[in-house]
């Protein structure tokens, strides 16, 4: 595996990989060439865990979490998204934002799974991992 997975005590752990294409820019001269609008094929891995399954035997439907992220970001300019009005769409902020969006969705499910980690690769040589404090061991 290319990335670290978190240590936890949940009975079930699910990992969903997905890709989406999007443009962005970091509107600051200190960002150098990244101040210009450019595009990436982002790769995301999200780690979701829990102790209970739903009536279908799912922790969460793989397609539902993919759709949530695709519909928000695929073929968009990330800077235009409401979640990036006050903060630039860097790898770090995008990974955290994906974690927030997925966590908000998971909180609506009766079996209450949680998102332990979001891995986000922006380029072949650059990636970040967002892991909220409450799930670190
Ligand atoms: N900490 C961060 N640094 C940079 C970010 C970021 O999100 N967080 N983003 C960028 C740019 O958006 C850029 O698209 C990616 O930069 P970089 O990895 O430098 O891309 P390259 O392909 O040019 O890197 P190589 O080293 O040539 O592989 C910049 N920094
Ligand atoms: Zn970029």
Structural class: alpha+beta
What string, H for helix and E for strand, traces the elements in order? EEHEHEE
Strand order of the largest sheet: 3-1-2-4-5
CATH topology, what is it called? Tetrahydropterin Synthase, Chain A
C-alpha Rg (nearest Å): 15 Å
**Helical percent range?**
10-25%
The hetero molecules present are: the ligand Nc1nc2c(c(=O)[nH]1)N=C([C@H](O)[C@H](O)COP(=O)(O)OP(=O)(O)OP(=O)(O)O)CN2, zinc ion
Mean pLDDT value: 95
Give the number of helices.
2
Catalytic activity: 7,8-dihydroneopterin 3'-triphosphate + H2O = 6-carboxy-5,6,7,8-tetrahydropterin + triphosphate + acetaldehyde + 2 H(+)
Protein name: 6-carboxy-5,6,7,8-tetrahydropterin synthase
Pathway: Purine metabolism; 7-cyano-7-deazaguanine biosynthesis
Keywords: Lyase, Metal-binding, Queuosine biosynthesis, Zinc
Overview features:
five-stranded mixed β-sheet, binds ligand LPXRUNBV, zinc, 2 helices, 6-carboxy-5,6,7,8-tetrahydropterin synthase, 6-carboxytetrahydropterin synthase activity, Tetrahydropterin Synthase, Chain A, 5 strands, alpha+beta, 137 residues, elongated, binds zinc ion
Overview of this protein structure:
This protein has one domain (12-135): 6-pyruvoyl tetrahydropterin synthase/QueD (Tetrahydropterin Synthase, Chain A, 2-Layer Sandwich). It has a five-stranded mixed beta sheet. It is α+β, with helices and mostly antiparallel strands. The mean pLDDT is 95. The chain is built from two helices and five strands, in the order ββαβαββ. The chain has helices at 62-73, 91-106; strands at residues 12-24, 38-50, 76-77, 114-123, 126-130. The ligand Nc1nc2c(c(=O)[nH]1)N=C([C@H](O)[C@H](O)COP(=O)(O)OP(=O)(O)OP(=O)(O)O)CN2 binds at residues 26, 34, 90-92, 122-123, 125-126.
């Amino acid at each position: 595996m290319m990335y670290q997975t978190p240590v936890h005590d949940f009975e079930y752990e699910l990992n969903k990989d997905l890709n989406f294409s999007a443009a962005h820019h970091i509107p600051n001269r200190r960002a150098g060439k990244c101040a210009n609008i450019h595009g990436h094929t982002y790769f995301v891995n999200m780690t979701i865990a829990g102790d209970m399954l739903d009536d279908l035997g799912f922790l969460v439907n793989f397609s539902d979490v993919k759709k949530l992220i695709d519909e928000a970001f695929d073929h968009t300019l990330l800077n235009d998204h409401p979640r990036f009005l006050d903060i630039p769409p860097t790898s770090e902020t995008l990974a955290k934002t994906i974690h927030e969006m997925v966590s908000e969705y998971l909180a609506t499910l009766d079996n209450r799974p949680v998102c332990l980690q979001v891995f986000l690769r922006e380029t072949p040589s650059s990636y970040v991992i967002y892991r909220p404090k409450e799930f670190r061991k």
